[in-house]
Specification:
about 475 residues, alpha/beta, about 30% helix
Length: about 475
């Protein structure tokens, strides 16, 4: 552990049981010192980890002190909920005071196997003891094993690894433009524009941000990448008219929109995009960062519709909580990519890929995806029973374990009330959709508990 002399200044007594005030950033916060602490010469403080203090190595006594210290140290990019999470097991999280929360947010649809899954933990710890990182200057076996699974289990012939969903979409942007240039070597300016859709979310880096429809994400950072047109999600005629040869490099679409409000495409819409792209020589890119890898009850959400892309981007659940992104593509697209066209220092590390292999193997076990479909149907039945008659509920929608409850008002008071009652859920859309994306291993009993809490907290909407 690194010593904390860069953060903490003051006197640390090596014995006794007392509190001192230390300067942390611009504020002063009490740090409790106990006999069981080990103190190094340069003021590093270590505490034995337990289920309720695993994030408490600085000696903070409660959540309030941790949140106050954080306000002086981190850039204010997150409007965090007032919970300091310390540990988790299965579908349950615990804060530093030991309060339990049923996790139906799963790290924004990341923790597909919940927290502390035994197979995942074994994969991580075993690989960490062998080899963690070597960079892509060299080969490594876990990367190959994961790539083979992804190719064997999808439409794709090739895989590119990166570190996140936004990086996957950035890579897809580059690959689409390179493909057009490769396919039309005699054209001075091959197709370079992109089409995206209303309610879309593709990431926060400058290229992926340009494909994201929500103006509050884009406007503070404009000018973003030019050449993106936004069409109405599901509008077949508008898409047919907009996708043009020599102009449209690629069309980016989420088969099921997560951040945008849990909107599902139709087979007719996705097929029309496939047909129009084929006719125009454009690439069709499916963003399955949130809806892929079992979330919708299928390995890939587009399998619901029987329509297949040229490129697919993945990320969130793939490594069960470790950072990873992946771009899957056909040989046609991959043939345009040369050495040096793209790369990443950390992408596809042995540690992360071995964790992802464990996730993939569990999700693809016989019966796993069928159980996700069954639990998703049960969740929607429970929501209809408990919430269907509420005057504020406009629609309950979704597929598998990506479900949205659309309200006629802001969902924030309801989400806050649920959190105070021990249930973690998210918002989506324009802030008026409750997004429910629990771990895929959640039980029916836990779904019942979650919906009961949600139902009891509906009064918070009127009270607000």
């Amino acid at each position: 552990m690194n010593c904390l002399n860069s953060l903490i200044s003051g006197y640390v007594s090596p014995v006794g049981n007392h509190s001192q005030l230390f300067n942390v950033g611009k504020g002063r916060y009490p740090i409790r010192l106990q006999n069981s602490y080990k103190v190094c010469a340069s003021l590093s403080v270590e505490e034995p980890l337990t289920s309720t203090n695993s994030t408490n190595n600085l000696g903070f006594r409660n959540s309030e002190e941790i949140m106050a210290a954080e306000a002086n140290l981190l850039v204010g990019t997150y409007n965090r909920a007032a919970v300091v999470v310390a540990s988790g097991k299965g579908c349950t999280l615990y804060d530093v005071e030991g309060k339990e929360y049923l996790d139906m947010a799963s790290g924004i649809a990341v923790n597909a196997l919940g927290h502390g899954d035994e197979d995942w933990v074994n994969a991580v710890t075993q690989q960490a003891n062998i080899l963690t990182h070597v960079s892509n200057v060299y080969y490594s076996v876990p990367q190959l094993e994961l790539a083979k699974r992804l190719v064997d289990g999808s439409f794709a012939d090739r895989v590119f690894f990166c570190n996140s969903g936004t990086e996957a979409n950035e890579a897809a942007i580059k690959f689409a433009r390179k493909y057009q240039r490769f396919s039309h070597p005699d054209e001075k300016q091959p197709a370079a524009e992109f089409i995206s859709f209303t309610n879309s979310f593709h990431g926060r880096t400058m290229g992926a941000l340009a494909l994201t429809s929500k103006e509050q994400y884009r406007l503070p950072f404009e000018p973003v990448m030019p050449g993106v047109s936004f069409l109405e999600y599901g509008n077949i005629e508008a898409a047919k008219e907009a996708i043009q040869r020599g102009k449209t490099a690629a069309v980016f679409v989420e088969p099921i929109q997560g951040e945008g409000g849990i909107y599902s495409a139709t087979k007719e819409f996705l097929q029309s995009l496939r047909d129009a792209c084929d006719a125009a020589g454009s690439l069709l890119v499916f963003d399955e960062v949130q809806c892929g890898l079992g979330r919708a009850g299928y390995l890939w959400a587009h399998e619901i519709y029987g329509v297949f892309p040229d490129i697919m981007t993945l990320a969130k659940p793939l490594a069960g909580g470790l950072p990873i992104g992946a771009v899957l593509m056909t040989e046609k697209v991959a043939s345009a990519i040369n050495y040096g066209d793209h790369g990443s220092t950390f992408a596809g590390s042995p540690l992360v890929c071995n964790a992802a292999v464990a996730v993939f193997d569990k999700v693809t076990k016989p019966g796993f995806l069928a159980s996700v479909t069954k639990k998703g149907e049960y969740l929607k039945e429970l929501l209809l029973q408990k919430l269907g008659g509420n005057k504020h509920v406009k629609e309950i929608r979704g597929t598998g374990l990506i479900v949205g409850v659309e309200l006629d008002v802001s969902a924030s008071p309801l989400v806050d009330a649920c959190r105070n009652s021990g249930l973690l859920i998210l918002t989506a859309g324009k802030g008026n959709v409750v997004r429910i994306v629990p771990p895929l291993v959640i039980s029916e009993q836990e779904l019942e508990l979650g919906v009961n809490i949600l139902s009891k907290c509906m009064s918070a909407i009127d009270e607000s």
